[in-house]
Amino acid sequence: MNVFITGAAGFIGGSIATGLVQKGHHVTGLVRSAEQAEELTALRIVPVVGTLDDKALLIEQARRADAVINAASSDHLGAVLALIEGLEGSDKPLLHTSGSSIVGDASGGEHSDVIYYEDNLPAPTSDKAARVAIDDRVIASAQEGVRSAVLCNTLIYGHSLGVNRDSVQLPSLVKKARKSGVVRHVGSGGNIWSNVHIDDVVELYALALEKTRLAPSISLKAAKRHFWT
Ligand SMILES: NC(=O)c1ccc[n+]([C@@H]2O[C@H](COP(=O)([O-])OP(=O)(O)OC[C@H]3O[C@@H](n4cnc5c(N)ncnc54)[C@H](OP(=O)(O)O)[C@@H]3O)[C@@H](O)[C@H]2O)c1
Known about the structure:
By secondary structure, the chain is an alpha/beta fold. Helices cover 35% and strands 22% of the residues. An 8-stranded mixed beta sheet has the order 3-2-1-4-5-6-9-10, sandwiched between helices. It has a two-stranded parallel sheet with strand order 7-8. Helix 1 crosses helix 7 and helix 3 packs parallel to helix 4.
């Protein structure tokens, strides 16, 4: 399959791109610099230099591809609209990267026994409302001939595949702790963050690529070694 992926030099996008190449797919990846383009070429990923604001470029790449994965940002509406425009009426997969924080309650440590189901999610906290609106737009593109899915990754750990990039999550917390000499936590520290290994994230996206070719729009959540649909 010819796959176009944004964020191809990033932790999530770079790992997925490398994993898909290893599985025999032909992958084209969006990067922002010539250095990153060189890094991708060495990994047998075809680089395209540009940004998420390059609407015409995103539409063109989406039209050329058999499937699109948006892994550069969970929060860039313009890029999502451009990718949907490029895929409109094509019946091709669009996998969008979101996060499990869309169901976070920002309590900072209050225990809760509430279980969320994807057809009955809580109203998002104010800082996540725009992200949830983007997720909803991706899901709604199923009505416009796009086989769309939103993958709500939890906190991802592990070393990236191929590309030289750390996760924006644990390594940045560790760096802050090292710099200040203090390990910090949110609120009382009683809040729970689910984790997923990057290898499992790559497997989930590969699975979702396959499944969205066969099924109408779905939303997937990944945590630890379990996948929920
Ligand atoms: N890592 C996690 O545990 C996790 C979990 C859930 C959700 N997420 C979300 O998933 C998204 C990707 O996360 P990540 O960990 O892979 O981050 P990352 O390692 O920083 O990768 C993002 C990649 O996208 C590129 N990018 C960002 N904005 C761009 C733009 N405007 N135009 C072109 N390229 C752009 C970056 O380019 P440069 O290299 O040039 O900066 C980078 O290569 C984020 O929105 C994050 O909040 C992450």
